[in-house]
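User: Let's play a game. I give you a shape written as tokens, and you guess the letters that built it. Ready? Here's round one.
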């Protein structure tokens, strides 16, 4: 029987969703609905992409398009979804949030009817979907909250599968732990095998940390942007089942979006401003204006010459950390895009004792 899942945050959450699906349902067919809403390093245009931003889409339902390996974003837009569609054993559908919660509800309801499923599994890696909305570390609550509001608006049986609490570097594990409940299971190394190869090229950190925890890695891991080390613990490898009702009772933004029934993304953004006091869409716009849309694609050889001194500084700054993500290493050394991928390949080949899949150990 085909399973229907929603990658709540878009982008790299598709990887974590595929990992969770395999742990729950093995080789059963899966349809994963996801936004194409990615960081500026992937997509230089702020905000999510709609079907108009792609070529090569196929109809999945009247209002949901399928992304395949032959699909492509229309420049200058960028998206990792077409390559994920080719690399992962799933059918990938594009969620378009521009018609707001009502539009998303229609898309999800159509998919439920098309595949005659009894449950929609909403997967979030990290747990910002279970945030209250007033946490000082919260960065990107809107996509996840819109999904949960849409499921409630559609009236479908939806259950949240919260994977790896704290791994998205937004809400710390300790702030979530007390309310997660006891309905959970642990991911294992076996579960990661269907997604391990994707980290060769995909920049997702949260899903990489989830896979690392499932493989048994424990200890601090330095990630990009925050300058902090995320702690990989036994809880990091767990997936918690949480009802839609419990999510809406805790997540004030999701509840407000559901009650308002926003008919467009601009309305949802206004609700986010009212409830959380900020809009990540505006932050993306500001960042794009401040830093431009280009990404450095510098010299891998130069980065390799500086990697030892950079790692030494990292060990001094994070004395309790054991790992760093390859994305953090690349960006710390001034590389993104294809140069970051080449750096990863060279580090794995030339420093095999420091390769702790899918992370880089800080010491051999």
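Assistant: Ready! My guess for every position:
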């Amino acid at each position: 029987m085909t399973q229907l899942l929603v990658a709540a945050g878009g982008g790299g959450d598709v990887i974590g969703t595929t990992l969770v699906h395999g742990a729950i349902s093995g080789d059963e067919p899966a349809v994963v609905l996801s936004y194409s809403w990615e960081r500026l390093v992937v997509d230089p245009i702020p905000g999510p992409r709609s079907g108009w931003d792609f070529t090569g889409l196929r109809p999945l339902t009247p209002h949901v398009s399928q992304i395949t390996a032959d699909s492509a974003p229309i420049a200058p837009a960028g998206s990792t979804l077409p390559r994920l569609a080719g690399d992962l054993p799933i059918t990938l559908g594009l969620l378009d949030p521009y018609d707001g919660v009502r539009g998303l509800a229609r898309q999800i309801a159509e998919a439920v009817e098309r595949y005659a499923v009894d449950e929609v599994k909403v997967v979030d890696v990290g747990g910002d979907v279970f945030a209250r909305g007033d946490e000082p570390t919260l960065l990107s609550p809107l996509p996840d909250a819109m999904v949960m509001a849409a499921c409630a608006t559609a009236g479908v049986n939806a259950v949240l599968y919260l994977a790896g609490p704290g791994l998205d570097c937004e809400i710390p594990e300790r702030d979530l732990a007390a309310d997660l409940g006891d309905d959970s299971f642990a991911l294992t190394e076996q579960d990661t095998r269907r997604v391990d190869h994707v980290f060769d090229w995909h920049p997702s950190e949260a899903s990489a940390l989830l896979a690392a925890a499932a493989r048994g890695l424990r200890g601090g891991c330095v990630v990009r942007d925050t300058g902090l080390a995320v702690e990989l613990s036994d809880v990091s490898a767990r997936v918690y089942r949480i009802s839609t009702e419990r999510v809406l009772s805790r997540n004030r933004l999701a509840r407000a979006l559901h009650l308002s029934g926003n008919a467009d993304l601009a309305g949802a953004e206004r609700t986010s401003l009212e409830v959380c006091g900020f809009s990540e869409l505006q932050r993306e716009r500001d960042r794009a204006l401040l830093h431009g849309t280009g990404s450095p694609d510098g010299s891998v050889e130069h980065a390799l010459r500086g990697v030892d001194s950079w790692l030494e500084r990292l060990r001094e700054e994070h004395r309790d950390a054991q790992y760093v993500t390859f994305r953090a290493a690349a960006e710390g050394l001034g590389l993104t895009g294809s140069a970051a991928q080449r750096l990863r390949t060279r580090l794995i080949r030339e420093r095999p004792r420091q390769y702790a899949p899918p992370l880089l150990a800080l010491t051999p």
